[in-house]
Amino acid sequence: MELVYRIAFASLKGLSRTFADEIITRLGSEELFFTAPERQLACVLGFNNKMLAQTYRDEVLEKARREADFIARNNVKPIYYTDADYPCRLNDCDDAPLMIYTAGKCNLNASHIVSIVGTRYATPYGIDFTNRVVEDLSRKLDDLVIVSGLAYGIDIAAHMASLRHNVPTVAVLAHGLNTIYPASHRNIAADIVRGGGMLVTDYRSIDAIHKGNFVARNRIVASLCDCLVVAESADKGGALITAGIADSYGRDVMALPGRTSDKYSAGCNRLISNNVAALVESADDIIKAMRWTPKVEEGYQATLSMELTTEEQAVVDYLSQHDEAQINQLCVALNSSVSKLMALLIEMEFKGLILTYPGGRYRLA
User: Fold this and answer.
1) Is CATH 3.40.1000 correct for 304-364?
2) Diameter over CA atoms, the chain
3) Which of 166, 203, 163 has the alpha carbon at shortest distance from 181?
4) Looking at the domain that runs over 112-290, which CATH code has it been given?
């Protein structure tokens, strides 16, 4: 029954962490808040409003009983703000939820937690950066967790990169654990749980999904981490909101810069120019900024250059010097026919050496 009272107490409207502590200090328990007569509560607490109304408390309690049944049936683990395994980073934030609901097993108090967010309209540039950062962080840091929001674009790229490199990843949801949104990410959500990650939400299964949930969810993405990385963002968007929240919590914010003509780098460039975010281009930049100690990499060395053919090396050298090129430019520079070079570029793309961008442009991966 204690769980029911905790669920009910955590779902009271307008209840902050500070206010919750004050109520429990005066009453002694969550149970007494729901069982004491309304007049007695008002006397002890020194105020009287709709929160103390018997009808309201009874309604909240009944919904909590239904939620407790859902938790028991679906192997959900609730974590209350006074529990020992409540995420310690959330304790820094007064608007953190009193209760979170989780599926999966993941250490939310890991030594290194990085949140990665960005536009839902991710480009190859942002996705490649996300993949590289997660891969490199996985090699260089122990006890690492990657956090994101399971949305389209950069979010799902961060989760998928984590799964590929065996990094526990946390998906923070804007709804209860009775559903997954977007529905197309259900299989990935299941893989996250099976892969040692976790689904986290402060919403109950009975809570309706609405637009405001996604903005509110961002505060958990921002507060669960040591640092937040914005991989791509237009001039407006949820990633910028999350970056602002993270900054207000005192988290380190970092952003991937892009060309001024690139729509989905505009937000990142503005974060950097406004000194809200530090410029980041690699995992090493994150590790250096956070003053983390990387682990010793045994047996790892870059063998890419030794594996390249003469023709591949020529393409790599040209793109290294010019950042990007179209096929006609490469044909002239490398004195090659279009058909021969096209076959080479396709092979290099399959090997993960280069990326194709809109307009027939090629860049190094």
Assistant:
1) no
2) 89
3) 203
4) 3.40.50.450
